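Hey,
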Amino acid sequence: MSRGRATAGLLAVAALTGCGGAGEDPPPPPVAVTTPAAEPVRIAAGPTGQTAVLAHVYAGRLREAGFDASVVDAGTDRADYLGALERGDVEVAADYSGNLYLHLRGRAPVGPATAAPTDGSTPTPTPSPAAEDGGLAEDLSELLGLGGERADDDDVLAGVRDVLPEGLRTLEPAPAENTVAVVVTRPTAVEHGLTDLEDLGPVCDELALGTDLDFAGRSYGPQGLAEAYECVPGRFVPFGAQEDLVDALLQDRVQAAALFTASPAIEDNALVVLADPLNNFVPQRVVPVAAEDLPDAAADVVDAVSAQIGTDDLVLMTRMTSARDPYTPEDAARYWLEGGDDT
């Protein structure tokens, strides 16, 4: 891709999103490295298009700080890149806290893990665990030893730290999250006075809830909504593609939809995300995993970058890497590093 085409295209993306990749303020300057980096810092591209963009963002900042940083394809399966970390083939990889914890405890991840495929294709939903397995939200709280309480972000992050393989550690998580949420159109929110899922409970039987193909088989789905919020929708309507689900919501064929919070469709259609005060849905914060022997100066750079990455940034990364004419993760990262439309 020529620089002229990339620049023009990225400005168009910024106009559509109404925000730059790094928010209103430019990213902070990289942490200074006072001594030359003796060893390279290799970052795994990770399981999704979003983590691939994040890998290039981390690498870019590390190079600015004086490290010999590069992005490595260590496979998209968690077993692959965690194995690469343990072997010393890579030093850093970004992931999502809930799915990482479930993987480490031998459970299936949540849905398509909000993949942002670089070829613009629609991710294929992964099979749901059998109902007798207890479902993911129930399993998560049980695995974390929380009893009847549901896991929040801090619980999951602490759990990840407890079960990481020897020689690995977590760095500071980003504010960004990409978890399942129930969304409605603004007219529906106004009509029923909806701001969170507790508001939804009393009117739930009047609404149809659109979902992906996995939702009904997961405990945060019908089971979780009923137990946490006494929400039993009039109908559950599954869709194989997010585009069809969003169209149905906008045409009022369903009145609520379960989407990932970093989906560009939420911003594009001014959808209202209903808060989940009882933590029905599995938390999914962006968290980098690193080798124990990663230099502290390199860890400081990664932490400084992570602190600047919010959910809006994930939305932009998803939009850019899953468009009809998608940008590469490296191009999307370069745009973010240059301050988006703040420049």
